[in-house]
Design brief:
Elements: E1 3-7, H1 11-23, E2 27-31, H2 34-43, E3 48-52, H3 60-69, E4 76-81, H4 85-93, E5 98-102, H5 106-124, E6 129-132, E7 135-138, E8 143-146, E9 149-150, H6 155-166, E10 172-173, H7 174-182, H8 191-205, E11 215-218, E12 222-225
Parallel strand pairs: 1-2, 1-3, 3-4, 4-5
Antiparallel strand pairs: 6-7, 7-8, 8-9, 10-12, 11-12
Helix pairs in contact: 2-3, 6-7, 6-8
Bound molecules: calcium ion.
């Protein structure tokens, strides 16, 4: 189970985040000020920290700076308020992984949390090579090759491939792919976008893209990656 720490001083925000993250199946702990947050980060292994910037005792930016100075690479998402543009940039420079601006939608936050957890999950596994049809893929390095040499894939193509690979032999709907891979993007892609990406991936993966055997179509729903 993924363990998340919320460092936030506003009681309503604390409670709302905690309830919603627990509902999503995460284990959640809460700290109400920066000092307490820093202490918990030192004493525990979290998969992710949601860190408010304006905090009593120690600001979120100070917490972030100290955590990174101590070589702790726990993923951090900063919670910033409108008008804290400078803090946002500074936070990323200090080593935060992402930020959301209050007021944010829960859906947006959850998408970002999932994206970060997915990324660190891949990194944790170390060597993450997979043979997918003709394509040898290293998800950690975002590298791919076939018998002829290096194959250039876009970031999104890697993400789609990875998602399907992680859910092999499972039918994955276009909407699920949109939600999981595109998530919080500002551009609003359609299911047609997904189809186009799949067509391109098949060109790389399948021996005969016109007769797909690896990324197959599930009629009326979406796609499924099957073992050869
Ligand atoms: Ca605050």
């Amino acid at each position: 189970m993924f363990k998340i720490l919320i460092v936030e001083d506003e009681p309503a925000m604390q409670l709302g985040l905690k309830d919603n993250l627990e509902f999503e199946g995460y284990e959640v702990e809460v700290a109400g000020d920066g000092e307490r947050g820093l202490q918990l980060i030192r004493d525990n292994q979290y998969h992710l920290v949601l860190l408010d910037i304006m905090l009593p005792k120690l600001s979120g930016l100070d917490v972030c700076r100290r955590v990174r100075e101590e070589r702790n690479q726990v993923p951090i998402i900063l919670l910033t308020a409108k008008g804290e543009e400078i803090d946002k940039v500074l936070g990323l420079e200090l080593g935060a992984d992402d930020y959301v601006t209050k007021p944010f939608s829960l859906r947006e936050l959850l998408a970002r949390i999932k994206a970060i957890l997915r990324r660190s999950d891949v990194n944790d596994k170390g060597s993450d090579e997979a043979q997918i049809g003709r394509l040898l893929v290293n998800f950690q390095k975002y590298a791919a090759s076939n018998e002829e040499g290096e194959v250039k894939l876009s970031h999104k193509e890697f993400e789609i491939l990875h998602y399907l690979y992680e859910h092999r032999n499972e039918s994955v709907s276009r909407y699920r792919l949109l939600e999981e891979v595109w998530g919080y993007d500002d551009a609003q892609p359609t299911t047609r976008t997904v189809d186009n990406f799949i067509l391109r991936l098949r060109q790389q993966v399948e021996k005969d893209p016109k007769d797909p055997r690896i990324i197959i179509t599930v009629h009326g729903s979406g796609y499924k990656m099957v073992d050869e």
